[in-house]
Write a structure and sequence with these properties.
35% of the residues lie in helices and 20% in strands. A hairpin with a 4-residue loop joins β3 and β4. The protein is of the alpha+beta class and 447 residues long. α2 crosses α5, α2 crosses α8 and α3 packs antiparallel against α4. The chain has 2 domains: 253 residues, Metalloenzyme, LuxS/M16 peptidase-like (Cytochrome Bc1 Complex, Chain A, domain 1, 2-Layer Sandwich); 96 residues, Metalloenzyme, LuxS/M16 peptidase-like (Cytochrome Bc1 Complex, Chain A, domain 1), CATH 3.30.830.10. This is Insulin degrading enzyme. InterPro entries: Metalloenz_LuxS/M16, Pept_M16_N, Pept_M16_Zn_BS, Peptidase_M16, Peptidase_M16_C.
């Protein structure tokens, strides 16, 4: 029998890594590539700040502009005169960790219901029909602390699509007649996830930490959590959905990215016209300072029978939130060394014994307040018989890195490799690009 293995441990991040690598923070005005001297309001009271000097690859021919609207929405505009598709995305910095305890999956359900009619465009399929008629598509996803909505459309029809899209955040209907169908859609999504090994491992992680921590919540939801249980307890899910949307869908927790053929000035005017009326409720950004894995939840070994024919060893280290160190990126530094493939590396040693095929290491997002460091190993048949030996080699290698301390040349190597990757990165497709950037914008401190 083949197993997926998960080992949860709690070694402290060595203080030498935190102090040396965390000391390279830039001046606040340079974060995210925005420079204070470029800020201007363009004589428009709906714009709080604007930045035109965006750090980009010399090979990138697109033009960029950053905005902060007066209502707190952060915006990145991308002008690309050659694009066939225009695209936009809006990320709300709220996700399943903020679900009420008695309705698991409510934020995900909100994502589904939001697309189905607005006061300005009440027809249920108006948005999807407009996109399909103009070579477009849309999607959305909900994670622990993000709900991300995005679309693409033929470049001539950006304004029409963006107008329909913006209405979801101004005047959604949440029509009662759509509720049952969307509950079934969420339930089908859950049933699909059950057959996914990565999703099953993630559910195990959440189930083996602190059960009182929001990280343990069942984020997808299903028919039981969104219909059966609420009916048993006399809960009106639509009313709870309206409360959730009213409580959390605030402009100060939103970020928007728009890409089109239009000039930056035209894109600016379009975004201001469509999004400046989104209400700012000054909702505090949820934080989760306590880690879901404390001492009593660690040093555990779990064996999982997989769906697919795979053999993996998955080691999880709880670590503090490293977001404030993102310029020096200590998680990347450690991942670079632990996942190195050259002579003398952990991988080369384990491959020489015939135990592993691949090994990768790196930080994994948790939520605002906690993170994880992961080592994921693809095992050979022989390696499955030497799991404890592989773990021993891991800790011997980590101890070696701890004893040597941070090395300036390694940091410089990481920096140089990232600089090359940034300069020669492939041009990303509009829909994925806007979705990703909208999620990243929340961390831009200089807006």
């Amino acid at each position: 029998m083949r197993y997926r293995l998960a080992w949860l441990l709690h070694p402290a991040l060595p203080s030498t890594f935190r102090s040396v690598l965390g000391a390279r923070l830039p001046p606040p005005e340079r974060l995210c590539g925005f420079q204070k001297k470029t800020y201007s309001k363009m004589n428009n009271p709906a714009i709080k700040r604007i930045g035109n000097h965006i750090t980009k690859s010399p090979e990138d021919k697109r033009e960029y502009r950053g905005l902060e609207l007066a209502n707190g929405i952060k915006v990145l505009l991308i002008s690309d005169p050659t694009t066939d598709k225009s695209s936009a995305a809006l990320d709300v910095h709220i996700g399943s960790l903020s679900d009420p305890p008695n309705i698991a999956g409510l934020s995900h359900f909100c994502e589904h219901m939001l697309f189905l009619g607005t006061k300005k465009y009440p027809k249920e399929n108006e948005y999807s029909q407009f996109l399909s008629e103009h070579a477009g598509s849309s999607n959305a996803f909900t994670s622990g602390e993000h709900t991300n909505y995005y679309f693409d459309v033929s470049h001539e029809h950006l304004e029409g699509a963006l107008d329909r899209f913006a209405q979801f955040f101004l005047c959604p209907l949440f029509d009662e007649s759509c509720k049952d169908r969307e509950v079934n859609a969420v339930d089908s999504e859950h049933e699909k996830n059950v057959m996914n090994d990565a999703w099953r491992l993630f559910q195990l992680e959440k189930a083996t930490g602190n059960p009182k921590h929001p990280f343990s919540k069942f984020g997808t939801g299903n028919k039981y959590t969104l219909e059966t249980r609420p009916n048993q307890e006399g809960i009106d899910v639509r009313q709870e959905l309206l409360k959730f949307h009213s409580a959390y869908y605030s402009s100060n927790l939103m970020a928007v990215c728009v890409l089109g053929r239009e000039s930056l000035d035209d894109l600016t005017n379009l975004v201001v016209k469509l999004f400046s009326e989104v209400e700012n409720k000054n909702v505090p950004l949820p934080e989760f300072p306590e880690h879901p894995f404390q001492e009593e939840h660690l040093k555990q070994l779990y064996k999982i029978v997989p769906i697919k024919d795979i053999r993996n060893l998955y080691v999880t280290f709880p670590i503090p939130d490293l977001q404030k160190y993102y310029k020096s990126n200590p998680g990347h530094y450690l991942g670079h060394l632990i996942g190195h493939e050259g002579p003398g590396s952990l991988l080369s040693e384990l491959k020489s014994k015939g135990w592993v095929n691949t090994l990768v290491g790196g930080q994994k997002e948790g939520a605002r307040g906690f993170m994880f460091f992961i080592i994921n190993v693809d095992l050979t048949e022989e390696g499955l018989l030497h799991v404890e030996d592989i773990i021993l080699h891991m800790f011997q290698y980590i101890q070696k890195l701890r004893a040597e301390g941070p090395q300036e040349w390694v940091f410089q190597e990481c920096k140089d490799l990232n600089a090359v990757a940034f300069r020669f990165k492939d041009k990303e497709r509009p829909r994925g690009y806007t979705s990703k950037i909208a999620g990243i914008l929340h961390g831009c401190h200089s807006f």
